[in-house]
Amino acid sequence: MVEVPLSRGVLLVPGFGSGPGYFAPTDAWLRSCGYEPAHASIGRNLGCTDELVALVERQLVAHAEATGGPVVLLGHSRGGALARLVALRRPELVRGLVMLGSPVRDVLGANRFVVGLARGLTWLSAIGLRGLLTADCLTGSCFRTNSLALAAPLPPRLPALALYSLRDRIAPWRLCLDPYAECVAVRSSHTGLRAAPDVFAALESRLANWK
């Protein structure tokens, strides 16, 4: 067993359309390794990007205080993109960043069906349903600002890991290759990244060695 570092907090950021128990396998594995995972409370991750980033940032602050130091941000799919945006805002609170199947190079380049669902949410938002993506998140200033941030360099002392799979049918693997992260291929479906043995093997030594 690899030695667990003093700062053991991990904040898990779920993907688009997440439900109860979304990160249960990841949570169980982290706890078995001695970490203290917390789950970002962002509902089903269907809301405005700016608002969700602010929510995750507040929970990052709280988990860092609760665990006594900087924590690892670990996000799946859209959650990885949110985690990256938060890491840019608060690098002093982040010990490392993990993105699982996160198409950070072009979030609208994901599976067309999923992007179509996102566009449908903006229509529902326009007719008055709250807490959903708005058109601004896909075509307006919210989209442009966050797209630029996703392309921005990460702080040089912030270790980052982008895991991708050639079998992924939701997030095309080339879009998951963050140029400022260590990019590692794993064998998994998109949803399976939360429980894949390859993922846990890649995480074990890196989480332990990140300072």
Topology of helices and strands:
Layout: E1 9-13, H1 24-32, E2 36-39, H2 49-67, E3 71-76, H3 78-89, E4 94-100, H4 112-126, H5 135-139, H6 141-151, E5 160-164, E6 182-185, H7 197-209
Parallel strand pairs: 1-2, 1-3, 3-4, 4-5, 5-6
Helix pairs in contact: 2-3
For the structure shown, list the relevant keywords:
AB hydrolase-1 domain-containing protein, 211 residues, 6 strands, AB_hydrolase_1, single chain, catalytic activity, alpha/beta, AB_hydrolase_fold, Rossmann fold
How would you portray this structure in words?
The protein is an alpha/beta fold and 211 residues long. The chain has a single domain (9-209), classed as Rossmann fold (3-Layer(aba) Sandwich). It is built from seven helices and six strands. The protein has helices at residues 24-32, 49-67, 78-89, 112-126, 135-139, 141-151, 197-209; strands spanning 9-13, 36-39, 71-76, 94-100, 160-164, 182-185. Strands 2-1-3-4-5-6 form a six-stranded parallel β-sheet, with helices on both faces. Helix 2 crosses helix 3 (78-89). The longest helix is centred in the first third of the chain and has 19 residues, at 49-67. The radius of gyration is 16 Å and the shape is globular. It starts with 8 loop residues before the first strand and ends with a helix.
